[in-house]
Amino acid sequence: MDISIDDLSRLTEGRDLEIKAGLGRDRRGQLPKALWETYSAMANCDGGVILLGIAEEPRGSFHVVGLREIGRVQKALWDGLNDRDQVSINLLASQMVEEITVGHLPVLKISVPRAKRAQRPVYVGRNPLTGTFQRRFEGDYRCDAEAVRRMLAESVEDERDSRLLPGYTLDDLDPASLRAYRNRVKAAKPDLPWHSLDDRAFLQALGAFKRDRDTGAEGLTVGGLLMLGKLPAIQEAVPYYMLDYQEHPDPTSDKRWLDRLTPDGDWSGNLFDFFRLVLQKLYAGLPVPFQLSGAARVDQSSVHEALREALVNTLIHADFTGRTSILVVKRPDLYGFRNPGSMRVPLEDALQGGHSDCRNRILQRLFRMAGYAEQAGTGIHRIYSAWAEQLWRAPLLQETRDDPEMTFLTMTMVSLLSNDTIAKLESRFGPRFHTLTTTQKMALATVA
C-alpha cells in the first residue's frame, strides 16, 4: 500500500498512529530508540501503525524524507523484536512490516497489533515495572507499578475471583442473602441435586467455597464473598470495592439524582442484593409494551432481558482491584453501565458474539445457576438485538485502555423512527407490528 503526497497532508498523529523520521546521523536510515516505547504503548492498548521515513517539521506538518537504507532499519527492527533484553515479546508477523512508497521515496510501515491478555504487559528491557508503556493521544507514557501489577495478574489468572481467602468463613456471609440465593437457585433449577446439601457443601459445589488440598487451607473464594458476603468482610478483602446506582430525572437537570443506591450500611452491600435491587429499579417504568406468546402474555420483553444481561455483564467482567466504582445510571433517555477494567477480548469480537473470556468466572457461574445469566459469549449480541427490535439506536460499547482502565455500555432509547410514524404503524397493524423483524418494520415505515 502506497501513500500519496495528498494523503500525507491529511495524516494526524494520535493514539493509533506514530510518525518518525528514522534517519540517524548519516541521514540514510536508523531505527529510533524511542520506537520501542511506542511499540510497547500501542501493544498494551489497541495497537496502531508506526511510519518511519516521514519527518514532522514544523509540528503538525509532515514531509517524506525516505529511508535510503531501509533494509538496515528492518534488520535492526527484527533483531530487537527477538532480543529479550530489548523488548519482552515479538508480536509482529512478517506481513506487519511493509516497505511502502510515499512520493517515490521508501517508507517503513509497522503495524503493531493489540496484545492478547496473556501477552500483556509488553515492556521494554527486562523489568516490566519500569519498562511498560501505554498510548495516550499521541504520546507514550510509562505505566505506574499498580497498573503493571494488574496487567501481570490478568495475564496469569484466567479467573480473577477464584482465589481462596483463608480465614474467611461462612460467618462472613450475609445469612439473608444466602437464603434468598438458595431459594432462587431452587426455583431456577428445581432438579439440581445440590439442594439437599448443607450451606458449605452447596457453596463448595458452586466454587464459592474452596479447600486447598496441598495446604489444607479453606475458606470462601473472592467470588463467593463478593456475591453473598457481609460488607465489612468484602471491604477488608477487596479494598477498592464500590457499587453505585443513580437515577437522574433528565440529562440536564441541576438535581443530582432522584434515587441512589450505594453500600451505605442500610442493606447487605453484596453483589447479589445489589443486582436484585438495581434490576427492579431499571425495570420500573420501562416504556416497552407487553408481548404475546400464543395466547399467553409475556410480561418480560427482550428489553427486560437486555437490561438484565447488561447488569450481569457489568458485574462479572469488573476488575475489583481497580480504583473505579461500578456505576449504573438510569435516565429517561438511556441506561448506562460502567465497570473497572478493560475488555478481555477485542471490541469487534465481543460485538460479533461467540467470544468469551470472563474475568470473574465464579460470579458468572453463580449468576447462571440462579437463572440470571445466559450462555457465555452471547450477551452483547442479545443486547444489540433487543435494541434493534425497538428501532432504537444501537448501544455504544467502549473501553479505555489507559489508567484507569474501564468499560462503558450506553443504551440510548432514541428511536430511528419518529413517534408519529410508529403510532401510525401500530394503529394500522396492531400487536402484530411488534412481532416483525427490524428490517420488516423499517420497510413498512418506508412505504407507509
Task: Explain how this protein is built.
The protein is α+β, with helices and mostly antiparallel strands. The protein folds into two domains: 5-156, Schlafen, AAA domain (Methyltransferase, Cobalt-precorrin-4 Transmethylase, Domain 2), CATH 3.30.950; 170-412, Heat Shock Protein 90. The chain has 16 helices and 18 strands. It has helices spanning 5-9, 35-44, 70-81, 128-131, 145-156, 175-188, 199-206, 222-228, 231-237, 271-283, 302-316, 347-352, 361-369, 379-389, 419-429, 438-447, and strands spanning 17-20, 48-52, 54-56, 62-64, 97-102, 105-112, 133-136, 139-142, 209-211, 218-220, 243-247, 259-261, 291-293, 296-298, 326-331, 334-340, 396-400, 406-412. It has a six-stranded mixed β-sheet, with helices on one face. The chain has a four-stranded mixed β-sheet with strand order 1-2-6-5. A hairpin with a 5-residue loop joins strand 17 and strand 18 (406-412). Helix 10 (271-283) packs antiparallel against helix 11. The radius of gyration is 26 Å and the shape is globular. The model has no long low-confidence stretch (mean pLDDT 90).
